[in-house]
Batch of 2 targets.
Target 1
Amino acid sequence: MPSVMLRKREDGKLLFYVAKKDLEETIESLEFDSPDKWGGEVVLGDGSKYYFEPMDTPPNIPITLQAKRL
Amino acid sequence: MAAMTREETEALIQEVLEVYPEKAKKDRAKHLAVNDQSLEKANKCITSNRKSLPGVMTIRGCAYAGSKGVVWGPIKDMIHISHGPVGCGQYSRAGRRNYYVGTTGVNTFGTMNFTSDFTEKDIVFGGDKKLAKCIDEIETLFPLNKGISIQSECPIGLIGDDIEAVSKVKAKEHEKTIVPVRCEGFRGVSQSLGHHIANDAIRDWVLDKRDGDDSWQTTPYDVAVIGDYNIGGDAWASRTLLEEMGLRVVAQWSGDGTIAEIEKTPKVKLNLIHCYRSMNYIARHMEEKYSIPWIEYNFFGPTKIAESLRRIAEHFDDTIKEGAERVIARYKAEYDAVIAKYKPRLEGKKVMLYIGGLRPRHVIGAYEDLGMEVVGTGYEFAHNDDYDRTIKEMGNATLLYDDVTGYEFEEFVKKVQPDLVGSGIKEKYIFQKMGVPFRQMHSWDYSGPYHGYDGFAIFARDMDMTINNPCWKSFQAPWKKTAASEPVKAVA
């Protein structure tokens, strides 16, 4: 369960950053991304997949969240 | 020698790798690459931030170097205790030329060495009592210090001393900020982890000191300069430009910086990151906790400076945008004159760099402004994200080397035949003896500043002075000289 720091890049894309793994990737797709549900499976720019526990409201970005590696 | 093609560069890497045993060859091959600008991500071509191979000469430092030497050391009004044996503190004392204003030994302590001087006795019985005594003595002798940081050396972690407990007790007793930093040298693969640990220590022990205190007057133009260590006065040369365009520089991290500035940083509007590698951690933290955006900038060479000033100005209103244009216009005559003077003398010269974690990509623009070409670059302790940023800066088919070994670097220089090598003090004399002009790019070879427009003039002069120095023509004994080796006519 790496802790993942999410931040918005200047072009609006979400960046997925894991300090310990030295991983900084863009988020290509997010399973749930609507005002009432946020999270689920994410696919990163390099093709790897992670999972965020779905939330009822979208989080305030930047934020650190726990993600599961799939 | 003309620029090398992709095949030639690949062949060169193979040739250099040839001497290694099978296993070492496989490992080192991952760290050497030919640049390909079309790649999005560096991890496709180069591996970085891995443990150095035992037996090869690495040029890296340790976590203590990253924390005490780089991040904490330049904070001038704090006393940084090198906690452990005396050597680490003594050999790293005042070597980095982080300039500062103040009276050393009274209210600033930058060039002094404070150490708890461990002996066998302390290793056997523990050094916490000694540390407590050390802090008390510091308070008696240097009452104007604004705080103390305890920089652990290897033995502290090995014997398991509880420096946190001592810090807490003494901080209460003396009513000062006392920061224990767990930066034992053996941690991590290079100084890079030391930067991270130091950033985390600032985050945990210093940064939140003024949360909820609004007594300090802010303006909409407050910025903090982060990751500028004021080597030879770099931060001052940068700061004047920012102030001239209308911004208020609240804090300098950490060259010529004070602990008060650091505590005020969470109140700024924008964090400006120069050394991304050593201070991005704290910028990310401030973005998350205090919603302060951060941007990277580059103050080497007029092209990059103009680009950076405009990018910084975009985060502010029109007065600052006009300010940026005004600054660029004001210095135009000055830097044009520098280029006009030095470009003819330096045009077409090839440079190979091997530096720490930022300059291998940041100085490329400055060399290009002078018409020079960087044909190889590499980092001691960069991570993947640094190489992502480097790929775009470097030309196609140029050499990239990560954590290069002494042998590889020498061979690369012999084969590529650059006109200038920029690296550290350990490399300097090897290359000078080989007859290759060399600049020490960690501490600007005792010159500087190189940042900003003022710095660019000094940078250009220094490069010219090194490359066109007549001494390089005197490598052959006069009676061995043939007509072919007659020195080329001076250009100036």
Target 2
Amino acid sequence: MEHLITFTTPDQNSISVKSQTGMLLSDAAHLAGIDIGQPCGGQGRCGRCAVQVTDGTVRRRSALRLSPADIEQGFALACQTVVEDDVSIYVPPQEKIERRLTTDRVVAEVTVPADYDYLSDQTVRRIHLELTPPSMDDQTDDWSRLQTALRLQHRLENVTCSLPLLQKIGAALREGEWQVTAIVDLANVLQSGESDRPVWLIDLQPGHVDEYSSLWGTAIDIGTTTVSLWMVNLVTGEVKAQAAEYNGQIARGEDVISRIVYAGKGNGREDLRQRVLDTMNVLLEIACKRVKAKPEDIVKATIAGNSTMMHLLLGIPAENIRLSPFITGVNHLPVMTAREVGLSANPEASVDCLPGVASYVGADITAGVLSAGVDSAEETTLFLDVGTNGEIVLGDRDWLVTCACSAGPAFEGAGVVNGMRATTGAIEEVWINSETFEPTYRVIGGGKPKGICGSGLISLLSEAFITGILDKRGNVNLMATSSRVREGAHGGEYVVAWGAESESGEDIVLSRVDVDNLLRAKAAIYAGFTVLAETVGISLEAVSKVLVGGSFGKYINVEKAVQIGLLPDMDWSRFEFLGNTSVKGAYLALLDWQKRERITEIAKRMTYIELSADNTFYEAFTSALFLPHTDLSKFPSVESALQKN
Amino acid sequence: MPIEIPKDKWAGSIKAITIGATSAEGGTRAKAVTVGGGTTMPYLQFEAPTPNKPVIAIEIKSRKPEDWSPLLAEVWGEAMADSAQWAKKAEEAGADLIVLALTVEDNPEDAVKAVKSVLGATGLPLIVWGPGQAEKDNELLVPISEATKGERLVLGICEDKNYRTIVATAMANGHLVQARAPMDVNLSKQLNILISDMGMPKDRILMDPTTGALGYGMEYGYSVMERLRLAALQGDAMTQFPMIVTPGFEAWKTKEAKVGEGVPQAWGDWKARAINWETLTAIALIESGADVVVLRHPESVKRIKEAIEELITA
């Protein structure tokens, strides 16, 4: 039977064509000269060809990617929907489709905690002082005069400061004509509730600086691969700048073990300390420029990072982290100054390094647990922090168990030929047409691609697997007929972008070695997760939320992460992607001393499970070293996707 | 009072697989050999009889091996220089199957010729191994596979980095494949999945879990085989293939078997020790579920045959 199909495009043009019963909407659109993108090759996998049926009835062969609400509104996948009647079709603009699809790729925005109150939560304060000028009758020394003013005007009874600051005090008092602004850190007083605890004087500035003008602090996450820094106005709590860069220590080893080994040789420890400081100081400089501040304006820094990174930053010997029985030098560090640590900030700025739990579960995880809210969850929650080490926490407000597994830096875009951090120019999502093997990709910033970031690698690996370019072991199928599949320097490879399209002019490829690195990374994480769940006797179904942190990229596509076996195959609504949870936890601790205390409690509450204690982890690892997993029955949605192809 | 022996009931079983084809089946073998089919842990005759005995393959080479123990050179003599003759002697020594191992020096024509001459010299089913380098394996095995279509040879050795070409040619020409993974249950299973994903029928895969000689990791291989068998019986389809292992190769590379001089006197007679090494390795592997053992010394073959009879009739 013949039907009349009327397409309406976003610019309100209407085009009608005649078609037989059973014709695909995508074919009818082609007849009408309307281009509907089909990155996956008309397999109904990508959802990019969604159109809206405004009149008439159609038959949807598949509606994978459409929610019941979408179908209610008439949405249908053009490549999977056949004509059975005269119909009117609205073709929505592509951007709209993309936006609609982002519902499964949520990323949390930074918002200032609603209850943040500078005057009760922040430990660093700016206070005004008016001193009585000295005279022949009052020959009290400058420091005592200042202490008296602090005591009488602000009830601060025990203020101390460093020698370099003492050297500046006289000048500041006189320049301000005995009106000064002091910046003090009240952490000890606030935490103990006792006014005679030591208060640290960070700075003394002449005159009265507006009490509520910007006061800068910084939250830093030192990752093995990536260092992330947030610049925060402590008065309002707002994050005013963010910056991230690869950790300068990478040149001396990609994982914590090789860094520890390096630190033990010759001048290695000092070299590594200097390298990470250089990275942090460059980031501080960038962040300061963005907010038009000077490094001296930064009066407080809160630092999270894994135990090895923390030791290496502070120059504390780290070798016992590597050697059985795997002991850190220190888990709970005292508050230090920027001068001692070597940060380019106000030399007297308080530097608060957050506490860790064990050698392989550090402050990045305690901070992450706080920011992800695992410690207050009512139901069983699984928290994964995917970095160079994959750390996993399982629990709720009553109990927390944790373990760590070495994943390698692949998901941060390092250790992969064309990998890069998730910044401008990174390919962050890829679709591959299953018939032609031609890819469609999206680049952060929209320009020419420079490389592939973690989320792009996940999506690329998954697409290459589902379309048969890779077998389940990750071997490139050189029998595939496409010029993009070829023999490279280290075995088979797939060309994602030809040199003509890329920023550097060179082909962007996924090599066999990259695939192996990615497989190992995902297998380590999945294995850690299964072993941890088994250890406490909990099955997947009992986990009501899976919170995923890590700097993969802006978006993670759950479906892709499940298809490669990185995440367990469960209802997508149970996943939440939180981005860098470590720096976010450091930010919360920077703002609020009560949250800082909470991190200490979390560190004490977590039970650490050592995976190297027996061979269950190795067993789980090798079975996960497959796409998606040796036991396909654990991944029913992937099984059905493979059967469709 | 009679004691009732508890019996396990299993959900799965090992597939029975036939190697070699007679003229009635499209090949030229005098008889075919069927292995596998077990429904219990090995040799628990009170649970179920062993449907097919384990079999012995004797390994011969396409060219005279220079690095083999003098004890082997002594027993095979001149035949080692001619694979057809060697195969004939191996059949006389009691082999159920022949393994012909090709070398890197072989070109495709030599290799095809060697295979054909072995097929002509003996009526036993044949297993053909490439030299063990991916490219060379593929270069030699494809023409062999085509030239022997319908013989139900076993072609090998497939590993996870190089299996496609061998599997494709075996599928096209009615042969079987030997799938080797390095002593790990998961890795064995994964390779079997990869091969099955290509469409290889499940009655044409032999799995080779890799093994070590006595004193050189045999117990590890033993336990992997045991676990593969348990997984198979529990119903895991991707571990239900008969197993082939190479105790001859493993035992004859140990110092104990290879070297006769400059070793402690307490080691005793060299020849007896070397043969014992191969025999003890092989019998232990048979007891853990091996269906095909590949041996090198005729005396070991004789002893293993006797041991198999004892296991079956016990």
